[in-house]
Amino acid sequence: MHIHILGICGTFMGGIAAIAQEAGHKVTGCDAGVYPPMSTQLKSRGIELIEGFSSEQTRLNPDLFVIGNVVSRGNPLMEEILDRNLPYISGPQWLSENVLRDKWVLAVAGTHGKTTTSSMLAWILEYAGMEPGFLIGGIPQNFGISARLGNSGFFVIEADEYDTAFFDKRSKFVHFHPRTAILNNLEYDHADIFRNLEEIEQQFHHLVRVVPGKGLIVSNGQEENLERVLRKGCWTPVERIGVANGWEADVLTDGAVAVSFLGESQGTLLWELLGKHNRMNALAALAAARHAGVAVKAGIAALAEFRNVKRRMEVKGITRDITVYDDFAHHPTAIRTTIDGLRSRVKGARIIAVLEPRSNTMKMGVWKESLADSLTGADVVFCYAANLGWDLPQALLPLGEKAVAFEELDQLIAAITAYAQPGDHVLIMSNAGFGGIHEKLLTRMAAVAADEVASG
């Protein structure tokens, strides 16, 4: 079958493209501003990419058009497809019908931690020799790719609550029909499609409704929002993480993590990941893998070799003894958690937080009242204020003189370079490319270092 994918450079749709090709289909696709890393990954596979959404692409005569949720009415190619009554389907539905139908699906849902937890879970199954397929919204460094078909009946998928397509406003995860479902956490987000928390909770309950009675739900027992979802009706066994009547992770004096289930020791995890959030992610992955047949001790051994995900506290470079990190954090809870995790590692060293409020919800100003509080753990805060519809400097006022906002990227980079000193940790947070700030900043700081050497 020849499928043509609209919006192919998104992580999810690009993953579908890779999986479809691996399954033997001919795959082509298009997007606006064909961009890396997905464009590079797809081109390396020989997948033809077309810039833009011209109506002429119908002349490719694919058997089916697969539509990403970036596409809306008014898109010229979509309008041509509709006018000519050509066959089309959403990405999640195509995946469900063509790949997941005969799989044991392990789906990871939640406001935060989906990518990391999915990566942990896929790696545990891989370590156990199960060769799972997966589709993850990032690149797990243990694999180096975001998606693959796999060589077994197991498939791990990052289960996003964002809507499916312009013609299907249900959350993507409703299509996945998991046998094992992780509910990591639940907060209000995606203000561009959800009016309130209750609407998101309803979508999560749609997911709960389709998990079979012989399946398993792994839920964060510390989250009242998730407990409220489960109280609406649950027909599946539930194992909770973070509570005494479920899975727990206790940090020992040497930094190791003692894992227990129902009060019984399951083993000790030695790893380098930071923070409570990653311990909770690990518990969820261990519980889900156990349901799929992996002994907990084997899961713990796998996590000891887990290398995390790109853009999750990823060190981009060190110059002048200044460490620059890249992190995907873009929600106040994730921002706070990320800073706290870095603080636990660097202790009293200075943390320079650099934030681009880039998500749709952030750009709408939904979290502006919570933003300053989420940044209090940093020693100084630099924010990028371009293209916002609200007053970022005003929102940062509670932080006083330790926070500053810039409208121009070059000015922001110059200010960080002038402020940073040896021993500092520069934590850059954005869910987008941030104008290539990481490389530009490292280059600028390296130039300063070279000038210092030259001047003696």
From TrEMBL:
- Pathway named in the protein's UniProt entry: Cell wall biogenesis; peptidoglycan recycling
Q: Please give the SUPFAM superfamilies that the UniProt record associates with this protein.
A: MurCD N-terminal domain, MurD-like peptide ligases, catalytic domain, MurD-like peptide ligases, peptide-binding domain
Q: Which residues form the Mur ligase C-terminal domain?
A: 311-430
Under Gene3D superfamilies, the record lists: Mur ligase, C-terminal domain, Mur-like, catalytic domain, NAD(P)-binding Rossmann-like Domain
Q: What InterPro entries does the record tag this protein with?
A: Mpl, Mur-like_cat_sf, Mur_ligase_C, Mur_ligase_C_dom_sf, Mur_ligase_cen, Mur_ligase_N, MurCDEF_pg_biosynth
EC code(s) of this entry: 6.3.2.45
- Species name for this entry? Nitrosospira multiformis (strain ATCC 25196 / NCIMB 11849 / C 71)
Start and end residues of each Mur ligase N-terminal catalytic domain:
2-99
Q: What catalytic reaction does the record list?
A: UDP-N-acetyl-alpha-D-muramate + L-alanyl-gamma-D-glutamyl-meso-2,6-diaminopimelate + ATP = UDP-N-acetyl-alpha-D-muramoyl-L-alanyl-gamma-D-glutamyl-meso-2,6-diaminopimelate + ADP + phosphate + H(+)
BP GO annotations: cell division; cell wall organization; peptidoglycan biosynthetic process; peptidoglycan turnover; regulation of cell shape
Residues annotated as binding ATP are: G110, T111, H112, G113, K114, T115, T116
The entry lists its GO molecular-function terms as: ATP binding; UDP-N-acetylmuramate-L-alanyl-gamma-D-glutamyl-meso-2,6-diaminoheptanedioate ligase activity
Going by the UniProt record, its keywords in alphabetical order are:
ATP-binding, Cell cycle, Cell division, Cell shape, Cell wall biogenesis/degradation, Ligase, Magnesium, Nucleotide-binding, Peptidoglycan synthesis
| UniProt record similarity statement | Belongs to the MurCDEF family. Mpl subfamily.
Q: Which cofactor does it need?
A: Mg(2+)
Lineage, please? Bacteria, Pseudomonadati, Pseudomonadota, Betaproteobacteria, Nitrosomonadales
Enzyme class comes to ligase
| Ranges where the Mur ligase central domain occurs | 108-289
Q: Does tRNA processing count among this protein's keywords? A: no
Q: Describe its function.
A: Reutilizes the intact tripeptide L-alanyl-gamma-D-glutamyl-meso-diaminopimelate by linking it to UDP-N-acetylmuramate.
Query: What is the protein's given name?
Result: UDP-N-acetylmuramate--L-alanyl-gamma-D-glutamyl-meso-2,6-diaminoheptandioate ligase
The record's section on Pfam families has: Mur_ligase, Mur_ligase_C, Mur_ligase_M
Keyword Phosphoprotein (UniProt)? no
